[in-house]
TrEMBL record:
Pfam families: Pterin_4a. This is 4-alpha-hydroxy-tetrahydropterin dehydratase. One of its GO terms (cellular component) is mitochondrion. It comes from the Eukaryota. PANTHER family: PTERIN-4-ALPHA-CARBINOLAMINE DEHYDRATASE. One of its GO terms (molecular function) is 4-alpha-hydroxytetrahydrobiopterin dehydratase activity. InterPro entries: Pterin_deHydtase. It comes from Salvia splendens (Scarlet sage). GO terms for biological process: tetrahydrobiopterin biosynthetic process.
Amino acid sequence: MTEETANILIKRVPGWNLVKENDSWKLHQSWKVKTFAKGMEFLRLVADVAEGEGHHPDLHLVGWNNIKIDIWTHAVGGLTENDFILAAKINGLNLHNLLRITPTDK
């Protein structure tokens, strides 16, 4: 996928960012969860969606409450339309009860 196409598609997945790592484009997003257990639940929900899509993003629980997800298609070493579809499906998950809400989020 070209950078131009990625810049068009990124607008369809609010909250996600395009990042370039080792000459490959990836989708990235971070969240803060309420507790470690909520973080594990968050990752399980995302893993269920990803498995259903046959897609396997990099899922990270950093510290006790920081979730980071990177999506790209390993087989092509970069982004495909399927990566944006998975990001949209993750955005569609009901995760609000797991997330730590700060005053700036209201």
